[in-house]
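Re: the 240-residue chain
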Amino acid sequence: MRPPVSDLPLVLENVAYAAGGVAIVHDLTLTIGVGAPTVLVGPNGSGKSTLIRLAMGLIAPTSGRITWGGRAESDGRRRAMMFQRPVMLRRSAAGNLDYALGAAGIGRDTRASRVDELLAEVGLLHVADRPARRLSGGEQQRLALARTLARDPQILFLDEPTASLDPAATKAVEDIIRSVAQTGVKIVMATHDLGQARRLAGEIVFMLRGTVHECAGAERFFTAPATPEAAAFVRGDLVI
C-alpha cells in the first residue's frame, strides 16, 4: 500500500506577491514541516495573512515558488483554513457541519455520526439544533474550527482565530487548537497576541515589512531574539 500523499513540508522560495502594483510580501523563504504549531507574529501590515493565503493556495505568488510535499501542484484536499471572521450558513450548527462534510465528499450515510463527533470535539453538542448565526462569537469560532476539521486536514491554517473574543472564549478556542495539534495536524496560525503565541507555538515566524525577518523555536525567540527588531517587538515596542 502506498503511503498517503503529504503536503508537508510546505516550502516557499523567494516568494513575492503584489496587488494593484503594490508589493505586499517579498523575498519570502520559509519551510514549514511537521511538529508543533508554527505561529506567525509581527506588526499589522507585515504580511502574515498574505503568507497564509499563499501557503493555503488561495492566491498565486507574483514570483517565486511554493511546493507542497515537494510538488508544485496540489489539489488542496489536505489543507484547510479558518478566517478571522468566518461566515455562518443559514442553518443549524449541525447543518453547517453536515454541509461541510458533504463538500468534503463524505457520504450521507456516515455524516450524522461524524457531525456529532465534530460537535463534541469543539464542545457544541448541546447547541446542535440552534441556528448557527444565533450562537455567541466564541461558539461561532468553535463551529468554524469544526467545519475545517470536517476536511480531515493535514495542515490547518488559522488567521487571527481569537481576535475578537473575550478571555474565556479565547481559552476555549486555544484548548481546541492544542488538542488538534496533538493529533498530528500541522497548525499554522497568525496572531497579534504574543501571550497566545507563547502558549501555543513550537516555532515562531516573525514578519516585518512584508518578509520573514526571523524564524526560531518559540522558547529561543522569546528569551533571546536574534535581531533588535524582534527584541523590540517582544518588549511591546512599536516596530514598523
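The chain has a mean pLDDT of 95.
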